[in-house]
Design goal:
single chain, 9-stranded antiparallel beta sheet
Length: 192
């Protein structure tokens, strides 16, 4: 009886090790195709941060192809993309409270919906390759126009720029550019 229990535990231990090793190899491989990146923006006391994975174009049609129009996209690859703000902000004129969110998008030909979701998901898609997002946890959805770039961009990029009194969170890949306008709530109220 004791030998059977020992064999069972040994088998479970070996199986657990194989599963962990397989997961590590899988994660390492996917990261080589879509490396992770963190972009941070700071202005006075406001800090914005995005963690995401950056897939490459590799001669593929991206929007309307690899990333279908009208469907939820994890806004990168691998893990769900996250957006963190340490202060309340306005995103395209709508309030987003300070906190950490997963960031989802619905690309369309003329505009994108940008979705901030309060739940954290370990991976951007489920086993059946559907987005992990649960819509009931959406905190804010805004729709912003998309633009065509002059030159294609090989690797998906999220960055921040400033223009006029706005901070812009930019998504650019292939020949598509999307700018999401952001303002610090305190600055808006201070000058109102």
């Amino acid at each position: 009886m004791k030998k059977a229990i020992k064999r069972t535990f040994l088998g479970m231990f070996i199986l657990g090790g194989v599963i962990m090793l397989s997961y590590f190899i899988f994660k390492t491989n996917t990261k080589s195709f879509s490396p992770e990146d963190t972009v941070t923006f700071q202005q006075d006391e406001l800090i914005l941060e995005v963690f995401y994975n950056r897939p490459y174009k590799k001669e593929r049609q991206i929007f309307g192809g690899l990333v279908p129009y009208g469907e939820v996209w994890r806004t990168g690859a691998n893990e769900a993309t996250t957006f963190t703000t340490n202060k309340d902000i306005y995103v395209d004129g709508s309030l987003l409270p300070a906190g950490k969110y997963t960031l989802w998008t619905i690309p369309m030909e003329e505009s994108w919906k940008v979705i901030f979701n309060s739940e954290m998901y370990p991976w951007g898609i489920t086993a059946d390759e559907k987005p992990s997002r649960v819509p009931e946890y959406d905190v804010l959805t805004v729709e912003v126009p998309s633009k065509r770039t002059d030159e294609p961009v090989e690797q998906f990029t999220i960055d921040f720029t400033t223009a006029y009194d706005f901070i812009q969170m930019n998504f650019v890949w292939d020949r598509t550019l999307v700018r999401v306008p952001i303002k610090d709530v305190e600055k808006v109220e201070k000058f109102s």
